[in-house]
Design brief:
With about 250 residues, this protein is of the alpha+beta class. Helices cover about 25% and strands about 30% of the residues. It contains five helices and twelve strands. Strand 4 and strand 5 form a beta hairpin. The longest helix is centred in the middle third of the chain and has 16 residues. The two termini are about 25 Å apart.
Length: about 250
């Protein structure tokens, strides 16, 4: 139907990554047109948001059509997830937003035993954080975050410590956490595992003091791949801003 390509980094990196992704998923002639900023491809059409991002729609697809995933949120709510997460020796609280003030209703937990030392032997402010996100009907996403350590290996360790805690929330997460544990190797990955979309983000900088961080997400696919598509009744233009697009 359509696909959404997202890249991150400084501007020069984004252009290089977009070219690499386009060449991986599009025919060579289409990849060349897309990389050069063209709109009409043999495969379909590039529709822009006006903010530099875009989606690619296949020929024959219109914004009036909708892609709705079949997977549903867990029957486990964030409130029910509290007990198994506390039993896994995490410190938890309910929150309505993440660290960047983005709206996110979740039970957010940190591992108090996760400590990282600076070269001088002092303790850094590194964190290993798990957030089970639940907008109302049940948990639809589990976010794992290792950050604030200058050493990438330590941020990876932070996420790895949280993987079995995520699995404790609900048995259906086991297939995703098993895959994540095997593929947490310091490189970015994305795969559909059972009903879950599992992604790892590895940033060499961008955290506190521009330190590296690692983020893993186990989530249900969003309708229309997370894109808010305008229909003709919404006014001029084919699309609206992307929904829940990562900022790093």
């Amino acid at each position: 139907m359509f696909f959404n390509m997202w890249t991150a980094g400084i501007d020069s990196d984004k252009r290089a990554y977009s070219k690499m992704l386009a060449e991986a998923v599009l025919p060579a002639t289409d990849a060349a047109v897309y990389t050069a900023g063209g709109d009409k491809l043999e495969w379909g059409t590039v529709a822009g948001y006006g903010d530099g991002s875009s989606y690619i729609a296949a020929k024959g697809w219109t914004p009036a059509q909708s892609l709705t995933p079949s997977a549903m949120p867990l029957k486990v709510t964030k409130e029910k997830a509290l007990a198994p997460l506390q039993a896994a020796k995490l410190e938890c609280k309910f929150s309505d937003s993440d660290a960047w003030a983005n709206e996110r209703k979740a039970v957010a937990c940190t591992d108090p035993a996760y400590k990282v030392k600076d070269p001088d032997g002092s303790i850094e402010g590194a964190i290993a954080e798990l957030a089970a996100v639940d907008a109302g009907p049940g948990i639809s996403s589990v976010q794992l975050y290792g950050a604030h350590s200058k050493a990438m290996t330590e941020n990876i360790r932070g996420v790895k410590l949280l993987i079995p805690r995520a699995a404790a929330i609900d048995p259906s997460l086991k297939v995703a956490t098993t895959w994540l544990d095997k593929n947490l190797d310091g490189l970015p990955h994305a795969a559909y595992v059972g009903p879950w979309l599992v992604r790892t983000t590895v940033a060499l900088g961008g955290g506190i003091a521009d330190w590296p961080f690692v983020r893993a997400a186990i989530e249900l696919e969003k309708p229309n791949l997370g894109l808010k598509i305008k229909t003709s009744s919404d006014g001029p233009g084919e699309s609206d801003s992307a929904s829940d697009t990562p900022s790093n």
